């Protein structure tokens, strides 16, 4: 049973930074595609970025430039560095994991994804 637990969310001023973390258990972490999605109330969940076990990164077009995804396979951990935050970045951020050699947020959303419970980011 895969478990994903996010942390690091909070309230920050416009232009500030946050680092989100996600720890994983219940699977051979290094073999899985993992990534971040976000969702605001009333809207669909949207992909932020994904990273494969080989550390190949994928970012949704609208997320490129200010966000950086990384992982530590030895620690079963996934990270998302958020820089120069804007009010529109306010959302619940979710960690996700899926078995898929084609590791993008698009392919993740189509797969049998395990989700964390989310961590809230509020920018004002």
Structure overview:
The protein has 124 residues and is mainly beta. Helices cover 5% and strands 48% of the residues. It is built from 1 helix and 11 strands. The chain has one helix at residues 105-110; strands at 3-7, 10-12, 18-25, 33-39, 46-51, 57-59, 67-72, 77-82, 91-98, 114-115, 119-123. Strands 2, 4, 5, 6, 9, 10 and 11 form a 7-stranded mixed sheet that branches. Strand 4 (33-39) and strand 5 (46-51) form a beta hairpin. The radius of gyration is 13 Å and the shape is globular. It starts with a strand and ends with a strand.
DSSP summary: helix tally: 1
Estimate percent helicity: under 10%
3D shape: globular
Which percent range describes the beta-strand content?
over 45%
Average predicted confidence as pLDDT: 95
Largest sheet: 7 strands, mixed
Strand-helix topology:
Blueprint: E1 3-7, E2 10-12, E3 18-25, E4 33-39, E5 46-51, E6 57-59, E7 67-72, E8 77-82, E9 91-98, H1 105-110, E10 114-115, E11 119-123
Parallel strand pairs: 2-11
Antiparallel strand pairs: 1-3, 3-8, 4-5, 4-9, 5-6, 7-8, 9-10, 9-11
């Amino acid at each position: 049973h895969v478990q994903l637990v996010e942390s690091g969310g909070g309230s920050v001023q416009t232009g500030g930074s946050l680092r989100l973390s996600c720890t994983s258990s219940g699977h051979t972490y290094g073999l899985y595609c993992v990534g971040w999605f976000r969702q605001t109330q009333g809207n669909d969940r949207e992909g932020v970025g994904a990273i494969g076990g080989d550390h190949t990164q994928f970012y949704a077009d609208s997320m490129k430039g200010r966000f950086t995804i990384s992982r530590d396979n030895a620690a079963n951990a996934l990270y998302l560095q958020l820089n120069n935050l804007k009010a529109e970045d306010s959302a619940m951020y979710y960690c996700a994991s899926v078995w898929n050699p084609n590791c993008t947020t698009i392919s993740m959303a189509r797969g049998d994804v395990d989700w964390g419970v989310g961590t809230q980011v509020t920018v004002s």
